[in-house]
């Protein structure tokens, strides 16, 4: 969430130099680490969905923050979508999906 607030948060006014820097950082992240982050999110969401709703909800919040600027095919795929659909049967997770992923 700290990365999102520094690089993406639309409520923060950035100078043109900061905006260029932020774009460069996001581009580098897309190339070098976002696929690994998405895999980590998937593992967290899958492993803790029944045992730790707080961690799962925090992870959904992070996914929601990144989804607007990462390659959607990393999340909009059968594996990830099926797991998210499974969350719809868990009330607290269903609410988080609606809030953070705007479902």
From TrEMBL:
* Keywords for the protein's UniProt record, in alphabetical order: Cytoplasm, Nucleus, RNA-binding, Transport, tRNA-binding
Boundaries of each Exportin-1/Importin-beta-like domain copy? 2-96
Tell me the InterPro entries matching this sequence: ARM-like (IPR011989), ARM-type_fold (IPR016024), Exportin-1/Importin-b-like (IPR013598), XPOT (IPR040017)
Gene3D superfamilies for this protein:
Leucine-rich Repeat Variant (1.25.10.10)
As for subcellular location, the record says: Cytoplasm; Nucleus
According to its UniProt entry, what is the function of this protein?
Answer: tRNA nucleus export receptor which facilitates tRNA translocation across the nuclear pore complex.
UniProt lists the family membership as follows: Belongs to the exportin family.
Q: What is this protein called?
A: Exportin-T
Instruction: Give the source species.
Output: Rangifer tarandus platyrhynchus
Q: What is the taxonomic lineage of the source species?
A: Eukaryota, Metazoa, Chordata, Craniata, Vertebrata
